[in-house]
Amino acid sequence: MLKTIYEIIEPSDEVTGTKWSSVYDVVMLVCIVASMVPLAVKSEYPVFNIIDKITVTVFIIDYALRLLTAKEKLHKGVKSYLLYPVQPMAIIDLLSILPSLIPINAGFKVLRLFRIIRTFKVFRSFKIFRYSKNIERLARVLKGQTKSLTAVFSMAIFYVMVTALIMFNIEPDIFGNFFDAMYWAAISLTSVGYGDITPVSDVGRLFTMLSAFVGVAIIALPSGIITAGYLEVLNHEREENTNKNDNSSDD
Fold first, then answer.
1. pLDDT tens, residue order, the chain (251 aa)
2. Cα(200)–Cα(229) distance, rounded to whole angstroms?
3. 244-251: which pairs have CB atoms within 8 A and are 24 or more residues apart?
4. From the centroid of its chain, how far is CA 230?
5. Whether 159 contacts 215, CB under 8 Å
6. Are the CB atoms for 48 and 37 separated by under 8 Å?
7. What is the C-alpha to C-alpha distance for residues 232 and 226, in angstroms, rounded to an integer?
8. Among candidates 166, 28, 40, 17, which has minimal Cα distance to 93?
9. What's the pTM value of the predicted model, to 2 decimals?
């Protein structure tokens, strides 16, 4: 019984897919999107309160079923029921539920502090990660390319620090403090160029042009790394599917 429930509530691409598993995925995706509507409109209309109560009820049931089938997921025996609540997605599930369960009485100043917990409702949007295969692929890519991306990120930080230091000395009248110079360097790195802080001297403008070319090159690196990693993951999935089909044919 628990195994059947587990195969239904887990995303259909992670287990042997069934019709009910696909239906469950669709229902959960609809509930996640619907739960974000009251946050977006910030209206006091009763219909939005009803939507919130319905979606929270669905999330509570989902959390209870996942906790109930923790042994099927973690394969740690009775210990699974203690380990599951501290899993990243389980924490997100819990944070998305709690804000709607905590009563806030406007007459008590102490309880008003707990209003900040309401902002945890935004964690409901992260629940969609569980049901999106593309996001799951992207997570695998980022995990597999951690070293390369870390190296590029370190290079970007080094670029910001060095160019900010140089510009801070070239244009002392424009950049009142080192933080302003770092802000300018970060904006130049991303090629956004707000224009609120700009060099005025010829040397400063020349250095800005040179640093902009370097910044474009640095920004392009993560895109290439992620693209290559994404293609690698897709090829790996194709090979796995081919092997499964070949094994099925042999049987």
1. 888 888 888 765 544 456 788 788 888 888 888 887 776 676 667 888 888 888 889 989 999 999 999 988 888 888 889 999 998 888 888 887 877 776 544 444 444 444 455 556 666 667 776 766 677 777 788 888 888 888 888 988 898 899 989 988 888 888 888 888 888 888 888 777 777 888 888 888 898 888 888 888 888 888 888 888 888 888 887 887 777 666 655 55
2. 42
3. none
4. 17
5. yes
6. yes
7. 10
8. 28
9. 0.56
Q: Which two tokens stand for residue 211?
A: 């640093």
> Tokens standing for 167?
């510009």
DSSP the chain: -HHHHHHHHS-TTTSS--HHHHHHHHHHHHHHHHHHHHHHH----HHHHHHHHHHHHHHHHHHHHHHHTHHHHH--GGGHHHHGGGSHHHHHHHHHHHHHHS---TT-HHHHGGGGGGGGGGGGGGGGGGG-HHHHHHHHHHHHTHHHHHHHHHHHHHHHHHHHHHHHHH-TTT-SSHHHHHHHHHHHHTT----SS---SHHHHHHHHHHHHHHHHHHHHHHHHHHHHHHHHHHHHHHHHHHHHHHHHH-
CB atoms within 10 A of CB 235: 10
Place of tokens 């887990």: 10
